[in-house]
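Thread: Newbie trying to understand structure tokens

Hi all, I'm a second-year student working on a class project, and my supervisor (Dr. K.) asked me to get a predicted structure for one chain before our next meeting. I've only ever worked with sequences, so writing a 3D structure as a token string is new to me. If someone could post the tokens and maybe explain what I'm looking at, I'd be very grateful. Here's the chain:
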Amino acid sequence: MWEGGAARRRGDAMPNLKDIVDVAEALESHAVEAVADRCVVVRNRHAGCRRCVKACLADAITIRGNELSLDHQACVGCGACTAVCPVEALVPRDPTDGELAAAAARSAASLDGVAVIACARIASKDVGDPAKYATVPCLARVNEGLLVELAAAGVRRTVLVDGTCRTCKYRATGPFIDAAADEARTLIAAQGGAMEVQRASEFPAEALLEDKASLYGRERRGFFSRSRKRATEAGMKTAEVMVLKELGEKMPSLRDRLKVSQTGAMPWMEVHRRERLMDALDQMGAPVAGEVRSRQFGSVSIDVEACSACGMCAVFCPTGALKKSDEKPADRVGSYLEFQLSDCVACNMCADVCLKKCLTVEPAVSADELFDFEPRMIHLPDPPRPAGMLTGFKRR
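---
Reply by user tm_fold:
Sure, no problem. This is what the structure looks like when written as tokens:
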């Protein structure tokens, strides 16, 4: 009792019930985490992007006003939302992108250039050899970027194995799995790649388990390695929660974090999946197609006759693909917007906020422009002068 009183006098406050609850909530394992600041709807409530909501089979994602929320209790952890979000506002945690890519690479190395990715349900049947395939909760977690990365690494064939069980709670994600596979085939073919992408209901023969009894030792080793990892993560998360509580009101508000900078635009973000995708496409060599049609990219065009040069498209662009240029026209008439196709994630934000509705985003893009380091310059007219009190007055 005396030590407790001394501790209180020293100011070493013991954790209260709310502290314990906050830490417990932070340590709860979530397959998906929401990073609201990255969501285009949080940047501007007029953004029309609802890809995550359409992909979510559990109605766990809500978008209202400038808010993105994820109900972890309702979420089934399929990861479909993370695969379709253009700005990584929804992040997969189990497995992470890095963990999945590494597991797929190990699979390809063990199967002589064939990567196998299986859903957790068919993996639980102990038919395939866990050392020879990567596991995801649902194949909807696999995005086309990962498949293109595997092709760039020299993988000959990728097999997506998920069975055909009609009772699977993830069964509604089928179209999203097929869409990702089709997108990957399109992008790989555009670069002259040859990797085959297959969807199957059974493991390929080379990935089958030869000795089921050998799983016991592997599972024990896997359990202890996972336990060590979770203990480390728990310590880091506990420290993070307590630091955030100490900061309290010092944390900047959402408005402060997303306010317009001196350049006249909201903060730009890096989309790491986009960077890896561009690197992978580049590694595959020069494009063999003149045009690529993909949900990954968008080409911006503006009807300059209708444009008022308000600049809202550049203000709200999340990646800086569209921005005001410092370069001035030679005749000093009008201004320029710079458009960098490789940075465009096709979120359609620019078209959604366009006051004159004179901007469009098309999924068909020029392969030459995609790999051009120089941005395309879009010339805009000078904005119209506001009508004054003496507008139309003629001196007699």
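A couple of things are worth pointing out once you decode it. The mean pLDDT is 84. The longest strand covers residues 114-119. Feel free to ask follow-ups in this thread.
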